[in-house]
Write a structure and sequence with these properties.
binds 4'-deoxy-4'-aminopyridoxal-5'-phosphate, Aspartate Aminotransferase, domain 1, Aspartate Aminotransferase, domain 2, alpha/beta, pyridoxal phosphate binding, EC 2.8.1.7, globular, Cysteine desulfurase, 14 helices, 17 strands, seven-stranded mixed β-sheet
Protein backbone atom coordinates (compact mmCIF):
# COMPACT_ATOMS: atom_id res chain seq x y z
CA UNK A 1 0.00 0.00 0.00
CA UNK A 2 1.27 3.46 -0.86
CA UNK A 3 2.43 5.55 2.07
CA UNK A 4 -0.14 8.24 2.89
CA UNK A 5 1.94 11.39 3.33
CA UNK A 6 -1.17 13.59 3.27
CA UNK A 7 -2.57 11.83 6.33
CA UNK A 8 0.80 12.07 8.12
CA UNK A 9 0.99 15.81 7.43
CA UNK A 10 -2.13 16.35 9.48
CA UNK A 11 -0.08 15.43 12.52
CA UNK A 12 2.40 18.27 11.92
CA UNK A 13 0.79 21.61 12.85
CA UNK A 14 3.64 23.69 11.39
CA UNK A 15 3.13 22.28 7.91
CA UNK A 16 -0.12 24.22 7.62
CA UNK A 17 1.60 27.57 7.66
CA UNK A 18 2.32 29.88 4.78
CA UNK A 19 5.65 31.46 3.90
CA UNK A 20 5.70 34.58 1.76
CA UNK A 21 2.05 34.04 0.94
CA UNK A 22 2.68 30.51 -0.36
CA UNK A 23 2.11 27.15 1.29
CA UNK A 24 5.29 26.09 3.08
CA UNK A 25 7.25 23.40 1.22
CA UNK A 26 9.69 22.23 3.86
CA UNK A 27 12.69 20.55 2.24
CA UNK A 28 15.20 21.08 5.03
CA UNK A 29 14.58 18.02 7.18
CA UNK A 30 18.20 16.87 6.92
CA UNK A 31 19.06 19.97 8.97
CA UNK A 32 16.16 19.47 11.37
CA UNK A 33 12.85 17.68 10.97
CA UNK A 34 9.48 19.10 12.01
CA UNK A 35 7.68 17.70 15.03
CA UNK A 36 4.46 15.68 15.11
CA UNK A 37 1.75 16.49 17.62
CA UNK A 38 2.67 13.32 19.55
CA UNK A 39 6.05 14.86 20.44
CA UNK A 40 4.69 18.31 21.20
CA UNK A 41 1.99 16.83 23.43
CA UNK A 42 4.33 14.48 25.28
CA UNK A 43 6.58 17.39 26.25
CA UNK A 44 3.66 19.64 27.15
CA UNK A 45 2.03 16.86 29.14
CA UNK A 46 5.22 16.29 31.12
CA UNK A 47 5.48 19.99 31.95
CA UNK A 48 1.83 20.25 32.89
CA UNK A 49 1.46 17.04 34.89
CA UNK A 50 4.64 15.34 35.93
CA UNK A 51 7.77 17.41 36.02
CA UNK A 52 10.68 17.52 38.44
CA UNK A 53 14.40 16.86 38.41
CA UNK A 54 15.30 13.21 37.93
CA UNK A 55 17.02 10.59 40.12
CA UNK A 56 17.46 10.47 43.85
CA UNK A 57 13.95 11.79 44.28
CA UNK A 58 12.00 10.74 47.30
CA UNK A 59 8.84 12.40 46.14
CA UNK A 60 6.24 11.31 43.62
CA UNK A 61 6.99 13.78 40.84
CA UNK A 62 10.71 13.00 40.96
CA UNK A 63 9.97 9.32 40.72
CA UNK A 64 7.50 9.78 37.86
CA UNK A 65 9.92 11.99 35.95
CA UNK A 66 12.78 9.56 36.51
CA UNK A 67 10.62 6.76 35.19
CA UNK A 68 9.71 8.81 32.11
CA UNK A 69 13.37 9.73 31.52
CA UNK A 70 14.66 6.18 31.95
CA UNK A 71 11.70 4.96 29.94
CA UNK A 72 12.87 7.17 27.08
CA UNK A 73 16.30 5.55 27.35
CA UNK A 74 14.69 2.11 27.06
CA UNK A 75 12.79 3.28 23.96
CA UNK A 76 15.95 4.59 22.30
CA UNK A 77 17.76 1.36 23.17
CA UNK A 78 15.00 -0.85 21.77
CA UNK A 79 14.84 1.30 18.63
CA UNK A 80 18.46 0.44 17.75
CA UNK A 81 18.63 -3.04 19.26
CA UNK A 82 20.78 -2.05 22.25
CA UNK A 83 20.56 -2.51 26.01
CA UNK A 84 19.41 0.57 27.98
CA UNK A 85 22.74 0.85 29.82
CA UNK A 86 24.47 1.09 26.42
CA UNK A 87 22.63 4.35 25.61
CA UNK A 88 24.02 7.66 26.85
CA UNK A 89 21.90 10.77 26.45
CA UNK A 90 23.87 13.68 25.00
CA UNK A 91 22.83 17.04 23.69
CA UNK A 92 23.11 15.77 20.13
CA UNK A 93 25.24 13.87 17.64
CA UNK A 94 28.00 16.44 17.95
CA UNK A 95 28.36 16.04 21.69
CA UNK A 96 28.26 12.26 21.36
CA UNK A 97 31.23 12.25 18.96
CA UNK A 98 33.13 14.71 21.16
CA UNK A 99 32.51 12.43 24.14
CA UNK A 100 33.92 9.39 22.34
CA UNK A 101 36.88 11.27 20.83
CA UNK A 102 37.83 12.81 24.16
CA UNK A 103 37.48 9.47 25.95
CA UNK A 104 39.41 7.40 23.42
CA UNK A 105 41.92 10.19 22.94
CA UNK A 106 43.07 9.84 26.53
CA UNK A 107 44.87 6.63 25.57
CA UNK A 108 46.00 7.63 22.07
CA UNK A 109 49.33 9.17 21.28
CA UNK A 110 51.90 10.19 18.70
CA UNK A 111 51.52 8.25 15.47
CA UNK A 112 48.24 6.52 16.30
CA UNK A 113 45.93 6.79 13.31
CA UNK A 114 42.29 7.71 12.96
CA UNK A 115 40.61 6.92 9.67
CA UNK A 116 37.77 9.22 8.59
CA UNK A 117 36.45 10.11 5.14
CA UNK A 118 36.19 13.14 2.91
CA UNK A 119 32.40 13.11 3.23
CA UNK A 120 32.24 13.67 7.00
CA UNK A 121 30.26 16.40 8.70
CA UNK A 122 32.49 18.72 10.74
CA UNK A 123 31.05 17.04 13.84
CA UNK A 124 32.98 13.94 12.79
CA UNK A 125 36.16 15.79 11.82
CA UNK A 126 36.83 18.54 14.34
CA UNK A 127 36.82 16.40 17.53
CA UNK A 128 39.47 14.19 15.88
CA UNK A 129 41.49 17.26 14.85
CA UNK A 130 41.59 18.10 18.56
CA UNK A 131 43.39 14.79 19.08
CA UNK A 132 45.77 15.60 16.22
CA UNK A 133 46.57 18.93 17.84
CA UNK A 134 46.70 17.72 21.42
CA UNK A 135 47.95 14.12 21.21
CA UNK A 136 49.80 13.93 17.91
CA UNK A 137 47.47 11.38 16.29
CA UNK A 138 47.48 11.16 12.51
CA UNK A 139 44.21 11.73 10.63
CA UNK A 140 43.62 9.87 7.38
CA UNK A 141 40.72 10.44 5.03
CA UNK A 142 39.06 7.90 2.76
CA UNK A 143 38.57 9.53 -0.64
CA UNK A 144 35.17 9.94 -2.27
CA UNK A 145 34.55 8.90 -5.88
CA UNK A 146 33.07 11.22 -8.48
CA UNK A 147 29.59 9.78 -7.99
CA UNK A 148 29.84 10.27 -4.25
CA UNK A 149 30.80 6.87 -2.86
CA UNK A 150 33.58 5.95 -0.50
CA UNK A 151 36.53 4.47 -2.37
CA UNK A 152 36.56 1.05 -0.74
CA UNK A 153 39.92 -0.02 -2.12
CA UNK A 154 41.50 3.13 -0.80
CA UNK A 155 39.74 2.57 2.54
CA UNK A 156 41.23 -0.90 2.78
CA UNK A 157 44.71 0.36 1.93
CA UNK A 158 44.48 3.20 4.46
CA UNK A 159 43.77 0.74 7.26
CA UNK A 160 46.98 -0.28 8.94
CA UNK A 161 48.52 -1.57 12.15
CA UNK A 162 48.39 1.92 13.70
CA UNK A 163 44.69 2.51 12.89
CA UNK A 164 42.97 2.83 16.26
CA UNK A 165 39.62 4.31 15.28
CA UNK A 166 37.53 4.36 12.12
CA UNK A 167 34.81 7.02 12.25
CA UNK A 168 32.44 7.35 9.30
CA UNK A 169 29.03 8.69 8.43
CA UNK A 170 26.38 6.04 7.87
CA UNK A 171 24.71 8.41 5.41
CA UNK A 172 26.17 11.64 4.06
CA UNK A 173 24.26 14.82 4.91
CA UNK A 174 25.31 16.31 1.57
CA UNK A 175 25.52 13.51 -0.97
CA UNK A 176 22.85 11.31 0.55
CA UNK A 177 25.18 8.35 0.02
CA UNK A 178 24.43 5.40 2.29
CA UNK A 179 27.75 3.78 3.02
CA UNK A 180 28.24 -0.01 3.10
CA UNK A 181 28.78 0.13 6.83
CA UNK A 182 28.64 -3.62 7.47
CA UNK A 183 31.61 -4.21 5.17
CA UNK A 184 33.48 -1.14 6.37
CA UNK A 185 33.02 -2.18 10.00
CA UNK A 186 34.21 -5.71 9.31
CA UNK A 187 37.32 -4.43 7.50
CA UNK A 188 38.07 -1.97 10.31
CA UNK A 189 37.67 -4.64 12.98
CA UNK A 190 39.93 -7.01 11.04
CA UNK A 191 42.55 -4.27 11.19
CA UNK A 192 42.03 -4.02 14.96
CA UNK A 193 40.35 -0.59 14.96
CA UNK A 194 37.29 0.56 16.87
CA UNK A 195 34.37 1.79 14.76
CA UNK A 196 32.16 4.80 15.33
CA UNK A 197 29.30 5.48 12.95
CA UNK A 198 27.70 8.89 12.65
CA UNK A 199 24.07 7.93 12.17
CA UNK A 200 22.60 11.45 12.38
CA UNK A 201 21.18 11.21 8.84
CA UNK A 202 20.77 7.48 8.30
CA UNK A 203 18.58 6.72 11.27
CA UNK A 204 15.85 9.05 10.04
CA UNK A 205 15.57 7.03 6.85
CA UNK A 206 16.25 3.41 7.69
CA UNK A 207 15.98 0.99 10.61
CA UNK A 208 19.27 0.58 12.46
CA UNK A 209 20.36 -2.46 14.45
CA UNK A 210 23.63 -1.72 16.20
CA UNK A 211 24.22 -5.36 17.12
CA UNK A 212 23.84 -6.51 13.51
CA UNK A 213 26.17 -3.71 12.42
CA UNK A 214 28.58 -4.77 15.19
CA UNK A 215 29.79 -1.19 15.60
CA UNK A 216 31.49 -0.04 18.78
CA UNK A 217 29.76 3.35 18.83
CA UNK A 218 26.74 4.78 17.01
CA UNK A 219 25.58 8.38 17.42
CA UNK A 220 22.51 10.35 16.40
CA UNK A 221 20.44 13.42 17.24
CA UNK A 222 16.80 13.57 18.30
CA UNK A 223 15.86 16.60 16.25
CA UNK A 224 16.46 14.98 12.85
CA UNK A 225 14.29 12.08 13.97
CA UNK A 226 11.16 14.19 14.49
CA UNK A 227 12.08 14.76 18.15
CA UNK A 228 13.22 17.92 19.95
CA UNK A 229 16.58 19.67 19.81
CA UNK A 230 18.99 19.45 22.74
CA UNK A 231 18.98 15.65 22.91
CA UNK A 232 20.90 12.92 21.15
CA UNK A 233 22.11 9.44 21.83
CA UNK A 234 25.43 7.70 22.01
CA UNK A 235 25.27 3.95 21.75
CA UNK A 236 28.42 2.22 22.97
CA UNK A 237 28.98 -1.52 23.32
CA UNK A 238 28.86 -2.31 27.03
CA UNK A 239 32.57 -3.07 27.32
CA UNK A 240 33.51 0.00 25.28
CA UNK A 241 31.57 2.40 27.48
CA UNK A 242 32.94 0.67 30.57
CA UNK A 243 36.50 1.34 29.34
CA UNK A 244 35.85 5.00 28.48
CA UNK A 245 36.83 7.68 31.01
CA UNK A 246 34.16 10.23 31.97
CA UNK A 247 33.60 13.26 29.74
CA UNK A 248 32.29 16.02 31.98
CA UNK A 249 32.32 16.12 35.77
CA UNK A 250 29.50 17.08 38.07
CA UNK A 251 26.47 15.75 39.84
CA UNK A 252 24.91 12.40 39.03
CA UNK A 253 27.99 10.91 37.35
CA UNK A 254 29.89 9.91 40.48
CA UNK A 255 30.02 6.91 42.73
CA UNK A 256 31.36 8.85 45.71
CA UNK A 257 33.18 12.13 46.15
CA UNK A 258 35.44 13.20 49.00
CA UNK A 259 37.94 15.99 49.27
CA UNK A 260 40.70 13.55 48.32
CA UNK A 261 39.18 11.07 45.88
CA UNK A 262 36.33 10.33 43.50
CA UNK A 263 34.80 7.21 42.06
CA UNK A 264 32.51 7.19 39.09
CA UNK A 265 29.06 5.80 38.40
CA UNK A 266 28.69 2.98 35.90
CA UNK A 267 27.70 3.82 32.31
CA UNK A 268 25.51 5.37 31.11
CA UNK A 269 25.24 7.73 34.09
CA UNK A 270 29.01 8.19 34.22
CA UNK A 271 28.66 10.24 31.04
CA UNK A 272 25.64 12.30 32.09
CA UNK A 273 26.95 14.95 34.44
CA UNK A 274 24.45 17.46 35.77
CA UNK A 275 20.72 17.77 35.19
CA UNK A 276 20.08 16.00 31.90
CA UNK A 277 17.77 17.23 29.11
CA UNK A 278 14.73 15.69 30.77
CA UNK A 279 11.90 17.10 28.70
CA UNK A 280 13.91 16.60 25.55
CA UNK A 281 14.47 12.93 26.41
CA UNK A 282 10.74 12.51 26.95
CA UNK A 283 10.07 14.14 23.57
CA UNK A 284 12.74 11.95 21.99
CA UNK A 285 11.05 8.84 23.40
CA UNK A 286 7.70 10.05 22.07
CA UNK A 287 9.21 10.59 18.61
CA UNK A 288 10.57 7.06 18.63
CA UNK A 289 7.22 5.62 19.75
CA UNK A 290 5.52 7.57 17.00
CA UNK A 291 7.98 6.55 14.29
CA UNK A 292 7.98 2.92 15.41
CA UNK A 293 4.24 2.83 14.78
CA UNK A 294 4.80 3.60 11.08
CA UNK A 295 5.97 1.37 8.24
CA UNK A 296 9.57 2.51 7.92
CA UNK A 297 10.20 0.56 4.72
CA UNK A 298 7.20 2.28 3.11
CA UNK A 299 8.52 5.64 4.34
CA UNK A 300 11.91 5.03 2.75
CA UNK A 301 10.20 4.03 -0.49
CA UNK A 302 8.03 7.16 -0.41
CA UNK A 303 11.01 9.45 0.18
CA UNK A 304 12.95 7.74 -2.58
CA UNK A 305 10.05 8.16 -5.01
CA UNK A 306 9.98 11.89 -4.30
CA UNK A 307 13.70 12.11 -4.94
CA UNK A 308 13.41 10.08 -8.16
CA UNK A 309 10.52 12.19 -9.35
CA UNK A 310 12.48 15.42 -8.84
CA UNK A 311 15.58 13.91 -10.41
CA UNK A 312 13.66 12.77 -13.47
CA UNK A 313 11.92 16.10 -13.94
CA UNK A 314 15.30 17.83 -13.74
CA UNK A 315 17.12 15.28 -15.90
CA UNK A 316 17.34 17.64 -18.88
CA UNK A 317 18.40 20.69 -16.89
CA UNK A 318 21.86 21.43 -18.23
CA UNK A 319 22.21 24.30 -15.76
CA UNK A 320 22.05 21.96 -12.80
CA UNK A 321 24.89 20.03 -11.21
CA UNK A 322 23.94 17.35 -8.71
CA UNK A 323 26.48 16.33 -6.07
CA UNK A 324 26.23 12.65 -5.26
CA UNK A 325 24.63 10.07 -7.52
CA UNK A 326 25.55 6.91 -5.62
CA UNK A 327 23.39 3.86 -6.36
CA UNK A 328 22.48 3.57 -2.68
CA UNK A 329 21.42 6.99 -1.51
CA UNK A 330 18.77 8.60 0.65
CA UNK A 331 16.42 11.39 -0.42
CA UNK A 332 18.88 14.27 -0.38
CA UNK A 333 19.47 16.41 -3.47
CA UNK A 334 22.50 18.68 -3.24
CA UNK A 335 23.01 20.84 -6.26
CA UNK A 336 24.45 23.95 -7.80
CA UNK A 337 22.80 26.16 -10.40
CA UNK A 338 25.06 27.60 -13.11
CA UNK A 339 25.63 31.31 -12.67
CA UNK A 340 23.96 31.56 -9.27
CA UNK A 341 25.31 31.39 -5.74
CA UNK A 342 23.65 28.71 -3.63
CA UNK A 343 22.59 31.33 -1.04
CA UNK A 344 20.77 33.31 -3.74
CA UNK A 345 19.08 30.15 -5.00
CA UNK A 346 17.83 29.38 -1.48
CA UNK A 347 16.61 32.94 -0.97
CA UNK A 348 14.67 32.98 -4.21
CA UNK A 349 13.18 29.56 -3.54
CA UNK A 350 12.02 30.95 -0.20
CA UNK A 351 9.95 33.53 -2.07
CA UNK A 352 8.00 30.58 -3.43
CA UNK A 353 7.62 29.13 0.06
CA UNK A 354 10.24 26.46 -0.58
CA UNK A 355 12.71 25.93 2.28
CA UNK A 356 16.08 24.47 1.30
CA UNK A 357 19.50 24.82 2.91
CA UNK A 358 22.52 26.38 1.22
CA UNK A 359 26.15 26.68 2.17
CA UNK A 360 28.86 24.19 2.99
CA UNK A 361 26.57 21.98 5.10
CA UNK A 362 29.36 21.73 7.69
CA UNK A 363 31.31 19.65 5.19
CA UNK A 364 34.03 21.94 3.86
CA UNK A 365 36.43 19.13 2.85
CA UNK A 366 33.64 17.58 0.77
CA UNK A 367 32.86 20.90 -0.92
CA UNK A 368 36.54 21.15 -1.81
CA UNK A 369 36.51 17.58 -3.14
CA UNK A 370 33.76 18.55 -5.57
CA UNK A 371 35.36 21.87 -6.46
CA UNK A 372 32.51 24.02 -5.16
CA UNK A 373 32.37 26.59 -2.37
CA UNK A 374 28.77 25.84 -1.50
CA UNK A 375 25.69 24.02 -2.68
CA UNK A 376 21.95 24.11 -2.16
CA UNK A 377 20.28 21.08 -0.61
CA UNK A 378 16.72 19.83 -0.77
CA UNK A 379 16.06 17.01 1.66
CA UNK A 380 12.87 14.99 1.74
CA UNK A 381 11.07 13.54 4.73
CA UNK A 382 8.04 11.38 5.31
CA UNK A 383 5.63 14.34 5.31
CA UNK A 384 6.63 15.64 1.88
CA UNK A 385 4.25 15.02 -1.01
CA UNK A 386 4.43 14.66 -4.77
CA UNK A 387 2.75 18.06 -5.10
CA UNK A 388 5.56 19.55 -3.02
CA UNK A 389 8.18 17.82 -5.15
CA UNK A 390 6.54 19.44 -8.18
CA UNK A 391 6.33 22.82 -6.42
CA UNK A 392 10.06 22.60 -5.76
CA UNK A 393 10.93 21.77 -9.36
CA UNK A 394 8.67 24.57 -10.65
CA UNK A 395 10.18 27.09 -8.22
CA UNK A 396 13.71 25.96 -9.06
CA UNK A 397 13.05 26.30 -12.78
CA UNK A 398 11.77 29.87 -12.25
CA UNK A 399 14.74 30.60 -10.00
CA UNK A 400 17.15 29.47 -12.70
CA UNK A 401 15.36 31.62 -15.28
CA UNK A 402 15.92 34.59 -12.98
CA UNK A 403 19.70 34.11 -13.24
CA UNK A 404 19.87 33.02 -16.88
N1 LIG B 1 26.59 14.38 11.45
C1 LIG B 1 25.78 14.54 10.41
C2 LIG B 1 25.91 13.63 9.22
C3 LIG B 1 24.82 15.55 10.43
O1 LIG B 1 24.02 15.73 9.38
C4 LIG B 1 24.73 16.39 11.56
C5 LIG B 1 23.72 17.51 11.62
N2 LIG B 1 23.74 18.37 10.51
C6 LIG B 1 25.59 16.15 12.62
C7 LIG B 1 26.50 15.14 12.53
C8 LIG B 1 25.55 16.98 13.86
O2 LIG B 1 24.35 16.81 14.53
P1 LIG B 1 23.90 17.87 15.64
O3 LIG B 1 24.08 19.23 15.04
O4 LIG B 1 22.47 17.53 15.87
O5 LIG B 1 24.75 17.64 16.84
Amino acid sequence: MAFDAEAIREQFPILKRQVNGKPLVYLDSAASAQKPRAVIEAMTHAMEHSYSNVHRGLHTLANETTEAFEGARRKVAAFIGAEPNEVVFTKGGTEAINLVAAGLGASLGEGDEILLSEMEHHANIVPWHFLRERRGVVLKFTPVTDDGQLDLEAFQSLLGPRTRVVALSHMSNVLGTINPVMDLTRMAHEAGALVLLDGCQAIAHKPVDVKALDVDFYVFSGHKLYGPTGIGALYGKGERLAALPPYQGGGEMIGAVSLETITYADPPHRFEAGTPPILEAIGFGAAIDWLSGLDRIAIARHEHELYQHVRERLAGANWLRVLGEAPDKGAILSFTVDGAHAHDVAQILDRYGVAVRAGTHCAEPLMKRFGVTSSARASFALYNTHDEADAFVDALTKTQAFFA
